[in-house]
Amino acid sequence: MRFVKMHGAGNDYVYVDCFVEPTPADPAALAPRIADRHRGVGGDGLVLVMPSSRAAVRMRMFNADGSESEMCGNGVRCVAHLAVARGHAAEGRITVETGRGVLTLDVRRTGPRTSLVRVDMGEPLLRPEEIPVVAAGGTAPVVDAACPAVGPAEPWWEAVGLDPRMTCVSMGNPHVVFYCRDVAAVPLETVGPRIEKHAIFPRRVNVHFVQVLSGGRVRMRTWERGSGITQACGTGASAVCVAGALTGRTARRIVAEVPGGELELDWAESGTVFMTGPAEEVFEGTWWDD
After folding, report:
1. Extents of the domains making up the chain
2. Residue 282 to residue 275: CA distance in whole angstroms
3. Are 265 and 210 in contact (CB under 8 A)?
4. Set 18, 147, 233, 241: catalytic member
5. Residue range 143-169, pLDDT digits in tens
6. Cα separation values, 56 from 93, 97, 99, 116, 167, Å
7. Given 72, 147, 168, 180, which residue is catalytic?
8. Which fold has domain 128-276?
9. CA–CA gap between residue 27 and residue 15 (Å, rounded)
10. The pTM is what?
């Protein structure tokens, strides 16, 4: 099976072009093996680029633990690049079918193996049952709300300047956002999985810690549901943009600094979130599966 290793701002996946390759019989079982950074190709998961009756292409994504996710903002940019680079769609505006629905993207080639892609991420979902999150406020959006997943106070809170209140947003997949003074000092490898799997998040959750640098710029780190610490999370950066505006910490248009680079976000007055960032091919190869 031929594959392409790609990344968007460091968020890397193994991509299979199912227009020309057979669709894996059990992608959920394949994902942990092919994503293994020591015994496989290595990556945050597996993405299938497939024909669609509703859009130019269809995207299915599987996390490194084999669980299937609804959407991936960095992944969908790479899917759009691959569709254009391999001739499945023309450069410019294309559509991609995802677990969140059909998204519209604008692809501008910047090199033989790179593109800059703007994604219409759709409107954020804010009602607790849509995210989902079990919240004390009933149907009201969960904005700067008490979070049992991080209490009671721990020593690291003071060290990082943590505000333990949470803001919850869905971009087709669930996100929880916390603010602090120093994201680099957050013990993400221990705190992330504990929050991800807490009972208040019935479908688990993507966890983000955010440091506000100015009204238009933030720095963030992510524990991604099913994949762990990642270099970037496009849907997460979109959720952070929404959370910042809802809480009055940032403007509706921001740049998010992530470990793998930068993403531009704009929560338009129409309600839609737009995300712009790179997509880059790293290498191609063949996966030998017995």
Report:
1. 2-120+277-284, 128-276
2. 22
3. no
4. 233
5. 999 999 998 899 999 999 999 999 999
6. 10, 8, 15, 18, 34
7. 72
8. Diaminopimelate Epimerase; Chain A, domain 1 (3.10.310)
9. 12
10. 0.93
The total number of residues written for the chain in this structure: 290
Structure tokens at 7: 């990344």
156, 185 in Cβ contact below 8 A? Answer: yes
Identical fold for domains 2-120+277-284 and 128-276, yes or no, is yes
Q: What single-letter DSSP state applies at residue 185?
A: G
Q: Burial of 185 by CB count in 10 Å (0-12 exposed, 13-18 middle, 19+ buried)?
A: middle
On whether the 2-120+277-284 domain is CATH 3.10.310.10, my answer is yes
For 53, residues 6+ apart whose C-beta sits below 8 A from its C-beta are none
pLDDT tens digits along 175-224: 999 999 999 999 999 999 999 999 999 999 999 999 999 999 999 999 99
Cis amide bond preceding 259, omega within 30: no
147 is catalytic: no
Residue 72 among the catalytic residues: yes
**HSE value, Cβ hemisphere, 13 Å, CA-based, for 65:** 9
